[in-house]
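Next comes this protein.

***
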Amino acid sequence: MTSEPSGTRGAFSGWTTRRWLRVGVATTLVVLAVLGTLGGWAMWRTSQITSELVDRRSPALIDSMRLEEALVNQETGIRGYGLSGRADFLEPYAQGVTDEQTALRRLRPLVARDTWARADLADVEKLAGTWQERIARPISTASAEDTVELATERATEGKTTFDSLRRAMSRQQAHLQGERAAATRDLRQAVTLRNWTFAIIAGLILLVAGLVFEGLRRGITTPLNRLGSSARDVAQGHFDRALDSSGPADLRRLASDMDSMRRRLVEELKFSEASRTLLDEQAADLRRSNAELEQFAYVASHDLQEPLRKVSSFTQLLQRRYGGQLDERADQYIAFAVDGANRMQVLINDLLAFSRVGRVHNDHRTVDLEEVMERAADNLSVAVEESGAEITHDPLPTVVGDTTQLSMLWQNLLSNAIKFRSPDRAPRIHFGVTAVGDHWEFAVSDNGIGIAPEFQEKVFILFQRLHTKDAYPGTGIGLAMCKKVVEFHGGTIGIDPGHRTGTRVVFTLPVSDTAPAAPERKTQS
């Protein structure tokens, strides 16, 4: 690093960063205020002249030319009508009268503050009125037979009057052009003055910026660079390097505080490294444990199938061969064994299906939920017919997901709605759907026995049953599997606590960007 002269260090060693900034900002504000005043005056002057030229001088000249054009159109129409007697020649005259009134209406306020231009306009209006009174109106109102004779009689007078009108309009336009040229010269001079003013302002700003920059470099930037260099060394891992504490008093205090923080970070880093190592080990153990549990459930389900099939087969064989030959209690024991083996097989199959969600069935593609609904109703057609269930649904959309898993979801929800029906009424089941943001919200409503509020969260836990197997058969895996399928597809599922009669299961699935329009509503019963 380059060292500063001792005289400079002595002159500014007592200055704090705040004092450096206060002096620099105050100086800059004073200079900018003076320069801003000069620049504002130059801009105001240019704006005034520009407004005069754009809003008054140029529009006045343009409207004067439009007035001349309108009067010429009138004269052309009157002359053509007077020579031929054809009424279609009066169309330019009528249009010219309208244009004349429009031009005068716009021109009068533009020349209201200019005595010379106002006098020119008065002459033009007077001569135009004379020509219209003596020539235009009599000829335009005469019949086709009389107009030729009248035009011939007043041809010389009409020419003399309109030539006087032309000269008046030429004088008016010459005066307006002169005024616009003068305004243009004034604008050019104002722009030159403004450019020089801003050039001087730019030069002064550069000078002030250079002075401020040099002051900031000496008082703030150089000490901060030294401190920043030391801090970057620490950030790169050189925690054993102390921070440089040169510069103003407040920067030296800052360096001291940062060095204290560096020492504290060294201590915290040691502790953090030990904690992260422990956390990584625990995360690895958790991943390994989850993988082993999934594998265990899958393997155990497969390995239990074979001995369970043997137990079930032999107990059923025992029931068929010796049923009725033993006493009543022996027949009851055999029935208990057959029923237990069957329930165990159903439980293992459900557990196997549960373990496969997200692991075996993971083929995401476009799924038409109308077809899924039809398949679920067909698979449960016997239960639907026996219960007399009425099943309705809104037009179902197309989503992206695994067909097998979504089929299990629909079939489990429909099966539960049929199974837990009220004994005193036929089941009425409705699948509703609405679009909520980037998700579809589905609602499966029934009029069954319902779920008590205290059990509405527990029903989604594995093996949770609210009734005995004699009242309602099942393994307690169905809703847990529904929850796993919905969450695997990025949705949520729950029981609607506000639904009173029966149960309403509400779940969401992401909206598919390529989903086609939903078909018309269908009803199955």
